[in-house]
Amino acid sequence: MNYIKELKLGDPKTLEKELDLRVLSLGAGVQSSYVLLKMFEEEIAPADLILFADTGNEPKEVYEWLNHLKKLVGSKFKIEVVRNTQNTGNIIDDYKADSGRYALIPTHIKKEDGSAGFGRRTCTFEYKIKPIHSRVRDELGVKTLRNKAVEMIMGISIDEIQRAKTPPNKWSINCYPLIENNISRSDCHHFFKHTDYGNPPRSACIVCPYHSNKEWKRIKDNYPKEWKYAVEFDNWLRDENSTSVGLANFKKNDSKSEQYLHSKKIPLSVVSLESPEDVQYSLFDDECEGMCGV
């Protein structure tokens, strides 16, 4: 079979090894859905595992699209859902829990002196990367992936080339079929527009602090339950009576600072969303290994 070429980044010695496994990290957004369907159409080399890492905080439309994808490719591929199993498996429920493990969320911080800050980000690693790596170890029947060679396929397009990185470990080979073939996000949209597959949604957590005004407004106008959830969580971040492990540790480090989901450091319930050019930080600028938003 003549499959399209892929940009492959990894340790030079690992690139020369016989491959142990090929894995697609499926975010169920535009680009990774495109990659999956091009595998289905036999244009991209198939994956041995197709994994959707569920943070528990994806929009309803993402879960609906994921179920749609399962039906579309079910004759050839099985899509597996993996989760963080160290607490509830829900990124926000874990953060709000009274005890147990949780991830840090990159909230926008207003310090007591009025200066700005930005929260550390471990959510991608804890709820995307770790569950996928755990499933890979299980598939290979090993406790460590040392000396293995595993291709991790990601739907990162040419317009997001800054996200293409050599993995920090020696066993992983990051594969970027869209970059190698100069395929952009708009090209992926064009593909879906001219097929009967349907239209994939944008993949990102409901409460992601990287949302632009345009995205927040889209949620507010079209998904009232998700908007209400985001507003309530945003208000909760500044709740002085909270006993959650995540918020308690934040206050312990800096009790006078306040956290917000919006970059203006204004409550989400009152911030103006009418300026589309008022874009917050890019979801991808400091992203861990290209696992979000695809």
Q: Approximately how much helix is present in the residues?
A: 25-40%
Shape: globular
Care to count the β-strands? 9
Strand content: 5-15%
Rounded mean pLDDT is 92
How many domain units? 1
Structural class: alpha/beta
Radius of gyration: 20 Å
Give an account of the 3D structure.
The chain has helices spanning 12-15, 30-40, 60-73, 91-96, 123-140, 177-180, 185-193, 213-222, 224-236, 245-253; strands spanning 7-9, 21-25, 49-53, 79-82, 108-110, 116-118, 150-153, 172-176, 258-260. The two termini are 26 Å apart. The chain is an alpha/beta fold and 294 residues long. The strands form two sheets. It has a six-stranded mixed beta sheet with strand order 1-8-7-2-3-4. Strands 6-5-9 form a three-stranded antiparallel beta sheet, with no helix packed on it. The chain is globular and about 60 Å long. Mean pLDDT is 92; it is low at 277-289. The longest helix has 18 residues, at 123-140. The chain has one domain: Rossmann fold (3-Layer(aba) Sandwich).
In short:
With 294 residues, this protein is α/β, with parallel strands linked by helices. The protein is built from 10 helices and 9 strands.
Write out key terms for the chains shown.
single chain, alpha/beta, three-stranded antiparallel sheet
Strand-helix topology:
Layout: E1 7-9, H1 12-15, E2 21-25, H2 30-40, E3 49-53, H3 60-73, E4 79-82, H4 91-96, E5 108-110, E6 116-118, H5 123-140, E7 150-153, E8 172-176, H6 177-180, H7 185-193, H8 213-222, H9 224-236, H10 245-253, E9 258-260
Parallel strand pairs: 2-3, 2-7, 3-4, 7-8
Antiparallel strand pairs: 1-8, 5-6, 5-9
Helix pairs in contact: 8-9
